[in-house]
Amino acid sequence: xxxxxxxxxxxxxxxxxxxxxxxxxxxxxxxxxxxxxxxxxxxxxxxxxxxxxxxxxxxxxxxxxxxxxxxxxxxxxxxxxxxxxxxxxxxxxxxxxxxxxxxxxxxxxxxxxxxxxxxxxxxxxxxxxxxxxxxxxxxxxxxxxxxxxxxxxxxxxxxxxxxxxxxxxxxxxxxxxxxxxxxxxxxxxxxxxxxxxxxxxxxxxxxxxxxxxxxxxxxxxxxxxxxxxxxxxxxxxxxxxxxxxxxxxxxxxxxxxxxxxxxxxxxxxxxxxxxxxxxxxxxxxxxxxxxxxxxxxxxxxxxxxxxxxxxxxxxxxxxxxxxxxxxxxxxxxxxxxxxxxxxxxxxxxxxxxxxxxxxxxxxxxxxxxxxxxxxxxxxxxxxxxxxxxxxxxxxxxxxxxxxxxxxxxxxxxxxxxxxxxxxxxxxxxxxxxxxxxxxxxxxxxxxxxxxxxxxxxxxxxxxxxxxxxxxxxxxxxxxxxxxxxxxxxxxxxxxxxxxxxxxxxxxxxxxxxxxxxxxxxxxxxxxxxxxxxxxxxxxxxxxxxxxxxxxxxxxxxxxxxxxxxxxxxxxxxxxxxxxxxxxxxxxxxxxxxxxxxxxxxxxxxxxxxxxxxxxxxxxxxxxxxxxxxxxxxxxxxxxxxxxxxxxxxxxxxxxxxxxxxxxxxxxxxxxxxxxxxxxxxxxxxxxxxxxxxxxxxxxxxxxxxxxxxxxxxxxxxxxxxxxxxxxxxxxxxxxxxxxxxxxxxxxxxxxxxxxxxxxxxxxxxxxxxxxxxxxxxxxxxxxxxxxxxxxxxxxxxxxxxxxxxxxxxxxxxxxxxxxxxxxxxxxxxxxxxxxxxxxxxxxxxxxxxxxxxxxxxxxxxxxxxxxxxxxxxxxxxxxxxxxxxxxxxxxxxxxxxxxxxxxxxxxxxxxxxxxxxxxxxxxxxxxxxxxxxxxxxxxxxxxxxxxxxxxxxxxxxxxxxxxxxxxxxxxxxxxxxxxxxxxxxxxxxxxxxxxxxxxxxxxxxxxxx
Length: 1009
Fold this sequence. Notes:
Elements: E1 2-4, E2 7-9, H1 17-21, E3 29-33, H2 36-42, H3 48-58, E4 66-70, H4 73-82, E5 87-90, H5 99-109, E6 115-119, E7 137-140, H6 145-168, E8 172-176, H7 180-201, H8 208-214, E9 220-224, H9 227-237, E10 241-247, E11 250-252, E12 255-257, H10 260-271, E13 277-281, H11 286-292, E14 296-299, H12 305-316, E15 322-325, E16 331-335, H13 338-345, H14 350-358, H15 361-368, H16 372-378, H17 380-383, H18 389-406, E17 413-414, E18 427-430, H19 436-450, H20 458-461, E19 463-465, E20 469-472, H21 474-483, H22 494-503, H23 508-519, E21 525-531, E22 548-550, H24 557-574, H25 578-586, E23 595-601, E24 605-607, E25 610-612, E26 615-620, E27 636-640, H26 645-648, E28 654-656, H27 670-676, E29 680-685, E30 699-703, H28 711-716, E31 717-721, E32 726-728, E33 735-738, H29 741-744, H30 751-766, E34 770-777, E35 786-794, H31 808-813, E36 816-818, E37 820-822, E38 825-827, E39 832-836, H32 846-862, E40 867-872, E41 894-901, H33 914-921, E42 926-930, E43 945-946, H34 948-952, E44 956-959, E45 963-967, E46 973-977, ...
Helix pairs in contact: 3-6, 4-5, 6-7, 7-12, 9-10, 13-18, 15-16, 16-18, 22-24, 23-24
């Protein structure tokens, strides 16, 4: 991302890059040369600079220039030698020299600086010196800031026109006028009309920043005062002339010629039969001459001159509706938007299509809407070579539709009922506030993706996109809470909070937009959180808020709307639930949270009575547990069949490195595959659509075997033959095993390459390690499958900020050692240890164990005592047979965690789950210990261990049925070496000088403990 003068020069807006390059020259510094009296007259109604700023802001223009005033010609020449100026504006009387003499001297110093003479009376303009060198333009000051704005813009237009035509084929309006009086009247009028008309026709589907960018492609206004100047402008810019506005009487061949305007316009009309021409004259007899050309005529002195100028722009310059006509000028239809324009192109007769195409009407109308690229492609020079009318029609429709879709790629568009086109708009937002962390990350990567396509990139060859997305910004939550007078009460249980929110009413504006959005969306939807605190670097809040899935197929629209509103309110309610509040307290997040919401089409297809994605998963750019020659920086991926709940809640999924997709540690042998493969998956029940399920979120768990005849299982599974004890990578009768072999082993769809590029893109964009969530909808021909990006969040890798050394002596004196440890540093803050007693552990009672741990956690939280937690299997797993299913609120005071793998529960580490992400982001040491000799540890670097015998002898504070709470006199010493993924835990009574450490680490502990 590049910063230029406070603007974001968009690496994220490749479709709008050309607009950033337009209007490179800006008048930023103006030197005003005037007496105090002249300055007083100019500022009679207030500060000139202030009025100019207001004029800029009122028209949504860029930064207003700064005005520096000097009183004399000598001061002006002196300051010009010291400082650069973009324009000099001078009054006629300057004491020692007049304006023309000053202009001549200025040109000697700075030949390129335009000098504008501004007088209060026509007598002050030195009519006899109109041809004198030094003054470029003369105007009469009428106490109007819009004249100054018009002068500035005209200077910019003359300077930028050549480069802007080369970059974007911008159009040119030639304005011929030699009278300072009428130029001062008409030039501001023309500019105001151009700006306002351009603003009015810009497509409402653009967001505000892109609308402002497109304003840069407005037509450039070029002034001439003589016939020769006018002809020179016309010849130089002939292919790009948009219209000509000309006086009738001005100089030709050095003499005033009353028919100079007619001669000029007549010559142009002979060459271009349909170019809009306007003659402006104070002599009414010129009307007949104008009409004979034909050209539009306006009397300069008409009291309705402003209205007539407006009608000319509206009716002849393409700023109004496009009126489709037959060759005899009979109107047969009109279009006010590109969407209507595209639809009419398919319907109008061949004769009308050919009539408009050959006269460049299509290109001019589109150009008026600042659609530079499309205008270029619709220009008659490009479409005239098309063989026949049918091909021309197809080509025009294709170009218009492609542009409409392309410009929405990577863009978050303000939702508007009338302009919402679901076919091309992938990301819209309802509301004016912030989108929250999760939606902001999604929008960031959506924008980054647009610049990622390049030759040789897998992202170019395969479809990588996002689901149709609508974000309700956080002001919806704030308005909801305020209008219903809801107040957070610390002791209110989650159930009561949910009831309170369900009984409340969403703001009327939000309900209206939700209804409009839902009318155009009839596919299943997910309603997800996007908290303001969510997915921050050290506070991800991963999985702490609610998510709901809606079948969205009930025949009654009001029932569909009611379910969507209820889902929104329940996600709002989760903002006040205990788990995120506990996480906020632990992470020292003092301020209250607010909630935006993401509504997305659920990735996948319908298979029978169920809807689900073929693949869902989580990919991390940093692998905390590299094995089999893998490197941490090569990343790790977890995938599963069905909705991603399987992966993010720590159930059985397939883990692989995107660099080595064929190296599957879990699938080393047939027995390993049978033990570790996914047996069940989550899907959305499409028949259960009568109400929103408050618990379970309308998702059901299905057996892989039950879905064996459905496309994803057919494409992604292998078959087990028990009699041979072999697994074959083919869809054959027998037990289905989710190996994803077609993707990982045979590369029929390059999911590994796609993930590698996305992780690299995310890491580069965020400047840190990242985790992404994704889903894939496969097709019968795998290469045509679609990869959907769902979410990105930053990771914390436990960067080595200080040195830690674990020597053999430390291991010998420790009661626990891990060779798979996450975290870094010395930790000496925990004197409490809570562990699941291995003698009492029962895999069928893990929910009861979670309740016992939660009870102890509440007591330790009240005493503000952090603790070390030890237990078997995956902590925080949604599958109670894989570990202890604690929620964050159950362990909110935990200071370090040990995850045990043994003969009773031998599961893969928790990496990839929401629970794991929150633990690592807070820097909590997380030790995985594989017990091979649980009763008689050797206490050597080569073996993980926990000295259970030593632990059993320690004095206990409390013993429950499954859990034991021990407290030591001195805090434990936990040493984590993140460089080598090792950790050991020593008793606090062990003398400090016996511990291998260096002074720098001790200083680090004092700073960060």
